[in-house]
Predict the structure.
Amino acid sequence: MPASLSVNLNAIAMLRNRRDLPWPSVTGLGRVALGAGAGGLTVHPRPDQRHVRFSDLEPIRVLIDEEFPTAEFNIEGYPDEGFLRLVEEARPEQVTLVPDDPAQATSDHGWDFRRNHNLLGTIVGRLKNRGIRVSLFADGAPDREALSIARDVGADRIELYTGPYGGCYDDPQRALAIVEELGRTADMAEDLGLAVNAGHDLTVANLPALARRIPRLAEVSIGHGLTADALEYGMAETVRRFRRACGQDV
């Protein structure tokens, strides 16, 4: 089954936040994306609210519940107490935990599972007790011991950090090597019983090779490249293009 597409709304929110105005509408474009067949919406509410604001979360929850009840809400972020309270109030179907420093421009590495074993075990348990699926951001290099820790702390999924793959847009040979590395990591994760998501700098051009190498890929979360394409093609057509790149029939 082709991967589900979750549209990351952070870049839209960042554009909105340049002015004290309500447009572009985060929920409005989320509605367009879901109407075009996206499987869900992703946000990353950072502590400084420079992208999605805390006040955006409840309207997105309502949008999904009232208009697209089969879609999923995915909230990603570093699991400090403030983030966990936001998540518990917003009731997403999935939380993706990332090891970001608040000052980072964007997520750029996966968890050190060995160092954070106890921290993740406590937090994953707290979220799963509330019925939330948990995905952990993971580097693409194969490391069975690290992935075993992700499983042992109770995670349901990992999300492969695909930034280095996206960065090879002008180096096809390097891209092939990285997608194979990502594929081996996915193979290990699946063998351990973890489902696999992927995200960061994925595009219409590079998604097909990733989807072929990881045929059981559960979900891709895409923001920057998708928003850039939406400026050219419009949100609805862009979502359809990305869905086709995932292997979905559109």
